[in-house]
Specification:
44% of the residues lie in helices and 29% in strands. The protein is of the alpha+beta class. The longest helix has 23 residues. The two termini are 12 Å apart.
Amino acid sequence: MDTILQRLTELDEISGAIIVGKDGLIVAGTLHSEDEEVLGAMSAAVIGSIANYTAQINSGETHHVIIETHTGMVQLSEVGDLILVVTTTPTGNLGRVRLEMQKACHQLARVVASY
């Protein structure tokens, strides 16, 4: 898992990446700071809230969430019982980050399935 995250953070647009369980606990990460735990817990809460919202409005399951701020973006993708969280720079190429996250999610799904 660390190798997959390392490849993601090699992109200029991506400033950090973590894998978090839906319970908010960090599985793997590249931030290595106290912010990592806060980001993980809040990301799980965000995904849970958005999943409830989309279920209530009958929009189906949530797969990917993009949060845009003045300092960059946070993108979240579900991978089974895990969440891939990526932070980006404000000038990052949204499409490229999304494509690389999809590749990473497929790789993570294979890793998780092998356990």
